[in-house]
């Protein structure tokens, strides 16, 4: 049987997809590199749990601010300039983390990392959509979410393993990320298409909007996926403190591994989501978030590791399905010139729900302790996820 050789156009497109996905992966990887290192920073700089959660949350705030200011930038300037700016911010963030650790420097590094993630979340998703044929938008959406969550997963595991095996745990992960960011930046300029026209660059707040025909789906998708992001945010912010202070486990690999399980399972959730219609997947996955919250409460109440690991897996799969369903019913349903804005609006909602609960848990932890604060949070998420599941079932029945 003769197999036709790929045409130059196909090869060019394939390399453009690879370069874009790699840049997306590396940028998001940098955002979770500090996760297993928070306990080390807390010990070295005498941080309270509130300081740790605030240090995590400023990253998410940076993402939201970037999406609000530049949510439509890739629609106006073209995808490649915005993707390159995102990777550049990731590179600068790595350089800042290599400076002697101080709270002010760490905050700036996290904000800069958030700027890169904010640009990449909207522009990267839209860029991958552009590179696939219209009938393969589902594949493009799944790839975008997979490299997004896969980068988050790899970052925390990578830093945790290096912290346990190399003598400079607060330096080595960021040197490696600096090199990877440079490769990603070179790949973008070598393989991704230059914009056909470059619009005018302006810095002004944009009122991110969503077309009327997807507003209901948008609200349900953001709330469902945002609930999953909220739990992932709290796990990212305080899991290292819980392991070291409550379970007396000082392994940085384990601290990174817990968060890795959540984000890796989120990426794996894409495989499940592709087999189920979004209208059916969203309520079932929302119910899964309730189950994950129950396991998290068990882990906190019993001060035990196994339910925490189970919670991370169930949470990740459920949140991944919610993300896929949310993208499929929003970003995939609009015209190309609206994708950057709708994608940015979607992720602005997710990252708001990532940041606010983490700060809330930090305040509660200072007041009543880590475990009681976590139990209150788990209960709140379980209630929210149950309401979303009921609402999405009702919406599906109406259709």
Q: How would you describe this protein?
A:
- The protein has 399 residues and is mostly helical.
- The chain has a single domain (11-195, 212-398), classed as Up-down Bundle (Growth Hormone, Chain: A), CATH 1.20.1250.
- It contains 14 helices and no strands.
- Helix 3 crosses helix 6 (103-131), helix 3 packs antiparallel against helix 9 (215-246) and helix 7 (137-165) runs antiparallel to helix 12.
- The model is unreliable at 1-8 (pLDDT under 50).
Level-2 CATH architecture: Up-down Bundle
Radius of gyration: 20 Å
Work out the helicity level: over 70%
The overall average pLDDT, rounded, is: 84
Descriptors:
399 residues; mainly alpha; Growth Hormone, Chain: A; 80% helix; disordered N terminus
Secondary structure blueprint with pairings:
Elements lengths: L7 H25 L5 H8 L3 H22 L2 H5 L1 H19 L5 H29 L5 H29 L6 H20 L23 H32 L5 H22 L4 H25 L3 H23 L7 H33 L1 H29 L1
